[in-house]
Amino acid sequence: MTVQDVCNSMETWAPLSWQESYDNAGLLCGSRSQPVSGVLISLDCTEAVVQEAINQGCNMIVAHHPIIFKGLKSLTGKDYVERTMILAIKNDIAIYASHTNLDHAPQGVSYQLAQRLGLEQGRVLRPFKQALKQLTYFVPTDAAEATRTALHAAGAGNIGNYTECSFSQEGTGRFTPNDQANPSIGTNNQAEEVTEEQIQVIYPAHLESSILKALKASHPYEEVAYYIQGLDNTWDEVGSGYIAELPQAMDATSFSTYLKEKLGLAHFRHTAWLGRPIKRIALCGGAGSFLLADAIKAGADVFISGDFKYHEFFDAENHCTICDIGHYESEVMIKDAIHAYLSNNFSTFAVLKSMTNSNPVSYA
């Protein structure tokens, strides 16, 4: 197994096209063809984490946060980013980051936080828009099933809890092959009419290349007639944040204790409790203030996230209670999820969770 195999596996779960425009997820250093001796999973990639990988015999690190966020203009060791990269490069350690794309992925960061809290009946808080497309193509009736099968295998036609979805209608295709054509049906320079099906399937935009490849490989025509439309439909399984419910409503005191116990918190910042039972919980791993309005609109009693600024706490306006548990604390459980995922996909090398506490924030 190579570094590229691990990259491919992570991008099956969290495609790079799902990352925010400011992000820098993906392979940050290392050769894609390098065989993997072991993978170390961490929330952050620091000098201490790289040294841990060296000590554990791991030559690849999969982190949530990218160590390189802005362009590097030098590698002189003047700061922790450059020193981390130098140490990794000197020891042939590949570094891969799965950041906002993993925030948005099904069973991503916010989902894992909800699981840690034992929440039920969950859904994505702000589903993606314009991440789905529709493919319409035309095929002879006797080849329609073969193309549908190939497209479904490539990932087209999945809608929520339903798979192999498509729509088709029959019609007549007309064409005239020229001298240079090599038609599978018809004769050069003679008009032809063929009974065809028009088939439509929805697919995730990031799979477009493989889906078109499957269409052309399975289609009998030399020139495949098709067109693609972008959709404004939301993709309910992919997006920002998560909202779910406690098994049973709690009062503020009980919920505060529950939150601390489940997440191992000594304390957390919060706005005023609203004096009503707490049942519906919105969550966003990391810095989630941008989702506060979504949480309020969804009827959340509490919104759990991190990195709220002072004035942003006012925005709750007694519609819900903000619980700022800290950036690290709201995301650290993703290490367990990545570890389980890669361990399930690879058995030829060790997949280890970093024991380094990379949280830069301490509490007195």
TrEMBL record:
Coiled coil: none annotated. Keywords: Metal-binding. Signal peptide: none annotated. InterPro entries: DUF34/NIF3, DUF34/NIF3_bac, DUF34/NIF3_sf, N-reg_PII/ATP_PRibTrfase_C. Belongs to the GTP cyclohydrolase I type 2/NIF3 family. PANTHER family: GTP CYCLOHYDROLASE 1 TYPE 2 HOMOLOG, NGG1 INTERACTING FACTOR 3. This is GTP cyclohydrolase 1 type 2 homolog. It comes from Aquirufa regiilacus.
